[in-house]
Amino acid sequence: MKQGKIIKSQKDLYYVNSESETLMCKARGNFRKKGIKPLVGDNVLIEYLSDGEGYITQICQRSNEIKRPNIANVDQILLFATIKNPPLNLYNLDKYLAMCEYIGIDVCMILSKIDLADQKEIDDFVKIYEPIGYKILCLDNYDDFPEDEIMSVLKGKTSAVSGASGVGKSTFSNNLVDINVEIGSISDKSKRGKNTTRHTEIFKINENTFLFDTPGFDSFDIDFIEDEVELKDTFLEFRDKTCKFKDCNHINEPKCGVKEDLKNGEISESRYKNYLMLFEEIKKRRENKW
Prior knowledge:
Blueprint: E1 2-10, E2 13-18, E3 21-27, H1 29-33, E4 43-48, E5 53-59, E6 65-66, E7 71-72, E8 76-82, H2 90-103, E9 106-112, H3 119-129, E10 135-139, H4 147-154, E11 158-162, H5 169-176, E12 201-206, E13 209-213, H6 257-263, H7 269-289
Helix pairs in contact: 2-7
């Protein structure tokens, strides 16, 4: 019996990295009977057969699971964004951050293609997210790739590269791993990236460091939150505020600490606006569910 990590799946085949080799495995039939599907990122026990093949016999307990793409055991998300080409979408960005906070996954924000942006645009982005507590790495994938700094962020963790299509995820992966990830272009019509990552796969950087390559989240939904009142806890800058009401949603309530900080410029207007939009989106979905 060997232990390994699922690094890629194709239909009913799972590629499991175990020690110094990758085995092509199938899952035992009892998983299907129990309604359990092995996921990329799962730590598993395998029964070794021969010629690089085996059977997955047990899935170890997951620390977390993300629905889209369906992956498991993510230590941190490398959340990519660009100011231009494709244009910055703060609403999708804040929605994704809310999901990471809800699940409890650390986030490092990667502001890519900074050579295409003005310094003021870069500074404005950093001023929104750095004071909240998010680590931000600014990079130009081609001319100034801070590999040492990036490796210090990745070391000893399983990280998922995520973000909208065309933001430089594949170029980033190519700069770190000896692979040939297809690099996407930008659609002239929509100015959005063409998603070139067609499946989820993990690349092993070294013994304890893994990197997911995941599809974009252009059609990302917020169905991970059932009730809109839970949303406020996913915005870091809203936590520990002194409000008149303990269950304050920071919208219409009097003597609200969040709205006071917003008025004083201590909370980003774009973040608060996106919070209100997300609140309404979740509320409508909950009401329409019934």
